[in-house]
Each structure stands twice: as structure tokens, then as C-alpha cells.
Amino acid sequence: MKSSKSSVRIWRITGITSIVATIVLIGGFIYAISDVLNPVGSTYTSDATTSGAKPATTVATDGSFQIAVLGDSLAKGTGDDDGSGFARRTVDLLQKNGKEAKLIANLGINGQKTASVLSSLEEPGVQHILKQSNMIFVSIGANDLFNAGEALGNTQQAPSKQQLLANLPKASKTLQQILERIAQINPDAHILYLGLYNPFSDLPEIRVPGNEAVTAWNTTALNIINSQSNMSLIPTFDLFQQNLNKYLSSDHFHPNGTGYEQIAERVVQSIE
User: Fold this and answer.
1) Burial, 16: exposed, middle or buried (Cβ in 10 Å; 0-12, 13-18, 19+)?
2) Rounded to an integer, what distance in angstroms lies between the CA atom of residue 186 and that of residue 131?
3) pLDDT above 50: residue 51
4) CA-CA distance, 33 to 187, in Å (whole number)?
């Protein structure tokens, strides 16, 4: 009798755990959809005012790093426990290593897509910030790629690889325009593009199409970047692939503090 009751209790616990896990995954995907459909802007964060500042020279010619950030919610640092994001954490790591580093401005906006970033590059204020920087971080493309998530919200079916890749040709062309325009605005700055990861690789229905779509995007981005001497791609796919439970925030989409720290460490390794 006791054994029977114990078995029932175990099955109940297992069932509840499975339901909770499913809710978390679905919640994360819904959050991602909301992030795309309802972008939330914010005033930029900065270490110093830029009024009257002289344009930055080539990257770290005097051993210092003047950093600006453009892009989406990952650029902004959404999901981080203390709001630092990978940009602030990169600055902190550089300073810890004895480097002079300053975050000029973080222009990341939740839900932003490639077209919005491209348009923003014509704003005088944005151009002014970019000209003060000798290193520019760009995180964009996830909202373009996962825009097919709208279908999930309507049909309760996971998007196919074809759906996820539907926006790739147009968005990748816009990404190329973004990177080339930034280089025109500040030809002396080094541009680091943050590669994408699949936050849903632990969800069976999305794992394979998501991984294939993200890989295709990263490959396209790398082909663009390889043609430019002042650009680099920072890969993140491998960081998160087997570590979603450790590196994602509770929304199951953005990194948590530990995840952003992992990205920052990789950035520092690439630029020191």
C-alpha cells in the first residue's frame, strides 16, 4: 500500500514538473514574440557625456577602449540580473585586466530589428556616438530570424526551418548595409558582431529547425564580415547549446548574468 502511494506521489511530482517546464518554454517563446511585436526603447547608458568629445582614433592606439553598442535586447542587456549586459561586463573585465575602457553609450532597444538599426544610423546623435568610439558592438538579427514565432502564437505549431529562414535573405542584406554604414561613419573603429544562438534548442519541436536557421544566419553574417578587415564575429552558439539551463534568464530567451559574463569573456579574449 505504501509503495503504491509512493508511486502515485512520484508520478504526480513528475507530471507537475513536466507541466511547469513546458509552461516556462512556451512563456519564453511568447516573450520573444512580444519582444518583436512590441519594441521597448530606452535612453542609452553611458560612462561619460559625449558633447564636445573628440572623435576616437583607431582601436586602442593608446591602449584604451571607447565602446558603443547598437542593436536589440541582447545589446541592451535584457535578462541580466544586475542590468550590466555583455557590454558593461566587457568593460569591467577589461578594466580588471588593467586596460583603460569606457562605455560611451548603449543604444540597444528591446525588439529592434535590422531595418530599425539601419534607419537609426542616419540620426545625428547616433552618428556622434559612433564617431567617439573605437570599438562598436552590434547585436541584431534574432528578432528578424524568429519573427516566424508569430505563427506559433496563432497555430500552436512550431515554426519550420523554411519559416524561420523566410526573412534571412532580406535581413542579411540589411545586416550588410548596417555594418558597411557603421564603417563609413567611423572607418577607424573595429566592429564586433555578436553571433546568434538558439534559445529553444532544448524544445524538441524547435531544436533542429532552430539550430539550422541560426547556423545559416551566422554563416551568412560571417561571409559578410570576412570581406572587411575591421570587423569580427563573436560566436555564441556553442556557449549556449548545452548550457541553456545555466546561461538563460527566466524568460528562456535572453541570457542571465552568467550567460552575459560568458559572452563578455569571449569578447575580451578576441580583442586583447
Assistant:
1) exposed
2) 5
3) no
4) 35
